Amino acid sequence: MKKAEIDEILSSDDAHKNTENEQTIRDKFWLKFRETANRIPFSEDVAAAYYCALDPQTPNKVRGILLAALAYFIMPLDTIPDFLVGFGLTDDLTVLTVAFTAISGNITDAHRAAAKKALEADTAAQ
Known about the structure:
The structure is a single chain. By secondary structure, this protein is mainly alpha-helical. The chain has one domain. The chain is built from six helices and no strands. The chain has helices at 3-9, 15-36, 43-54, 60-74, 90-102, 109-125. Helix 2 (15-36) runs antiparallel to helix 3 and helix 2 crosses helix 4 (60-74).
């Protein structure tokens, strides 16, 4: 992916788009996460980003970046469709990595603890 494409995906200036992204994430994140977690080398970070993005204490710009990155992750057809084995998540992981780099330090210990608890509960339920 080109930097311009990633920058466009992660733009966080549109409040309406952020609201749409938040609803999409609330509705579909865990389903997509469960389908792909074993193929994501930093899945606990992705789950922590979910909690950070939905935390009202997170600065709006950071929330916007994370909402955009997580919404892109959830979309079934994006630059490289997720069903392409071996390549499908490459663009998603690139967008998530760039987003994490941009917001480093905003994912708190509380977000990480919530992610760890959710992942442990999910594992126990399986």
